[in-house]
Specification:
With 82 residues, the chain is mainly α. Helix content is 62%, strand content 0%.
């Protein structure tokens, strides 16, 4: 896998925190930053994916399905809410 170099300027407080956390995790700062960027990308793509799915949703059909959910299958006593 090819790697790219980026000159990164962090605020001093962010750098100190990142260094402290990477040390506590037992990883190099570079690896810590790579994981942080990957997590952020994943979060943003998840939001995008959920928005796309929500736009295609058929709410009335989903409500009909939910009305039928559990009919004839009462929860066991230990799963009931009082």
């Amino acid at each position: 896998m090819a790697a790219g170099n980026v000159a990164l300027q962090l605020q001093e407080s962010l750098l100190k925190e990142a260094l402290m956390l990477s040390k506590s995790e037992g990883v190099e700062l570079n690896q810590f930053i790579n994981v942080a960027v990957a997590e952020k990308i994943s979060a943003l793509r998840t939001v995008e994916y959920l928005r796309e799915r929500a736009a295609r949703a058929d709410i009335p059909a989903a409500r009909e399905i939910l009305k039928r959910a559990g009919l004839g299958h009462e929860p066991p006593p230990e799963d009931r809410l009082d």
